[in-house]
């Protein structure tokens, strides 16, 4: 069923009328995209710590109103599953905090979604991470993951287990495993080449991000989560959004791309975690949602609202300029809207509006984006992220 959100003060009908976005069925939006498009050329909405529904201010990262089935229907396509071994069974955990859901329950929900007539042409990227290194040896955990996949609905056949980034057509109705576990992979038939996309490095909370290679695809990863306090929300968003812009290409740098990662014409995947948390001044919920009344000068604007405005500016850069400027003015506000000096000052924080920046074509925003409390504010962020898949497309490029 198509969603009917309100997006940052404008109704979905307003956004559709303006041409900024098109109302789509989020349960099946990938069915509108050609088979030849590689997954690194998509913008896939995801949830950080997908099953972290408990733990209140410290460990909760998703709302109880958005269980896994709802997330999938709402367009979430990248799942961040974190598990621990409890008496020989894998259970969802966030760090040391139990999140209660058995891995088999997760697999059942995913299988039901991928075998539904409405969503059988979708694909899901599932990152699996071990949370109990101190009590469960990595080979034991790796074997448990394999065994539970094998005994779950769909078995191992539902998985794409090659260590490369596939095209959409190769993985419709399948789960692309991203294995953040495994040691040497001895528990899997083809070792590290048969347990899905396998990152070669993952430094902890690297502020400037890090890169690794997955066969011919260069992977840029932003996972800076340990921000010192909520005062660093603007910087967090500024850094994260730069990873959604394409890297410069040789001979085609128009000055509007991230210059930190010149990768020529190599295929590039951006893996972006917009989540951040540190105790006590940057808990997951207030970081994602903000708090107080920032539009009235009393409070702090959260990551999700800032990200949504940034994406909306990008999408609106190609529509009627009169409407674009009215949108920009509405969202960016005046000095009084900036919330104690830490609200929406885009020039100061580097999240400048893309409107009027002279883009020759629609900007290409691509990557896998994992967020906390994705349905706030106002259930609209995923709609904007999904729309990016249909912008900046040119025949003969990106598999289109």
Core attributes:
TIM Barrel, disordered N terminus, two-stranded antiparallel sheet, eleven-stranded mixed beta sheet, PI-PLC_domain, alpha/beta, globular, 400 residues, 2 domains
Précis, in short:
The chain is an alpha/beta fold.
Question: Can you walk me through this structure?
Answer:
It is a single chain. With 400 residues, the chain is an alpha/beta fold. It has two domains: 1-31 and 200-400, no CATH class; 33-198, Alpha-Beta Barrel (TIM Barrel). The chain contains eleven helices and 15 strands. The protein has helices at residues 12-18, 56-59, 68-73, 103-114, 138-151, 233-242, 284-289, 303-316, 321-332, 346-349, 381-387; strands at residues 6-7, 10-11, 43-47, 78-86, 89-94, 97-102, 124-130, 159-160, 175-180, 210-214, 217-222, 268-273, 290-293, 298-301, 367-371. The strands form three sheets. Strands 3, 4, 5, 6, 7, 8, 9, 10, 11, 12 and 15 form an eleven-stranded mixed beta sheet that branches. It has a two-stranded antiparallel ribbon with strand order 1-2. Strands 13-14 form a two-stranded antiparallel sheet. Helix 6 (233-242) crosses helix 8 (303-316) and helix 8 (303-316) packs parallel to helix 11. The longest helix has 14 residues, at 138-151. The radius of gyration is 20 Å and the shape is globular. The two termini are 26 Å apart. Residues 253-263 have a biased composition (Basic and acidic residues). InterPro entries: PI-PLC_domain, PLC-like_Pdiesterase_TIM-brl, PLipase_C_PInositol-sp_X_dom. It comes from Lentinula lateritia. One of its GO terms (molecular function) is phosphoric diester hydrolase activity.
């Amino acid at each position: 069923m198509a969603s009917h959100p309100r997006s940052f003060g404008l109704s979905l009908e307003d956004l559709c009328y303006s041409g900024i976005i098109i109302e789509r069925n989020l349960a099946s939006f990938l069915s509108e995209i050609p088979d030849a498009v590689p997954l690194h050329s998509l913008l896939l909405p995801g949830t950080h710590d997908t099953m972290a529904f408990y733990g209140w201010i410290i460990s909760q990262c998703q709302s109880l109103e958005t269980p896994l089935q709802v997330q999938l229907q709402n367009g979430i396509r990248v799942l961040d599953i974190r598990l621990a071994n409890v008496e020989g069974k894998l259970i969802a955990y966030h760090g040391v905090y139990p999140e209660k859901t058995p891995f088999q329950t997760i697999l059942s929900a995913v299988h039901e979604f991928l075998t539904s007539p409405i969503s059988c042409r979708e694909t899901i990227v599932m990152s699996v991470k071990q949370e109990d290194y101190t009590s469960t040896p990595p080979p034991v955990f790796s074997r448990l993951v394999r065994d539970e996949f094998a005994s779950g609905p769909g078995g191992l056949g539902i998985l794409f287990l090659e260590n490369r980034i596939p095209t959409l057509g190769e993985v419709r109705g399948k789960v692309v495993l991203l294995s953040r576990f495994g040691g040497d992979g001895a528990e899997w038939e083809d070792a590290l080449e048969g347990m899905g996309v396998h990152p070669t490095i993952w430094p902890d909370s690297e502020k400037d991000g890090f890169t690794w290679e997955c066969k011919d695809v260069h992977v840029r990863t932003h996972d800076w989560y340990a921000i010192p306090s909520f005062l660093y929300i603007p910087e967090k968003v500024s850094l994260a959004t730069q990873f959604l812009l394409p890297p410069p290409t040789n001979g085609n740098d128009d000055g509007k791309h991230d210059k930190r990662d010149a990768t020529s014409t190599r295929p590039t995947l951006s893996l972006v975690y917009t989540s951040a948390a540190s105790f006590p001044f940057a808990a997951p919920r207030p970081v994602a949602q903000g708090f107080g009344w920032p539009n009235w000068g009393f409070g702090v604007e959260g990551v999700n609202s800032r990200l949504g405005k940034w994406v909306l500016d990008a999408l609106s850069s190609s529509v009627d300029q009169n409407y674009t400027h009215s949108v920009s003015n509405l969202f960016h506000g005046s000095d009084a809207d900036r919330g104690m000096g830490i609200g929406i000052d885009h020039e100061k924080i580097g999240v400048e509006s893309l409107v009027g920046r002279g883009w020759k074509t629609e900007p290409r925003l691509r990557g896998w984006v994992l967020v906390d409390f994705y349905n706030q504010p106002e259930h609209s962020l995923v709609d904007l992220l999904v729309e990016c898949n249909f912008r900046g497309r040119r025949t003969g490029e990106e598999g289109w």
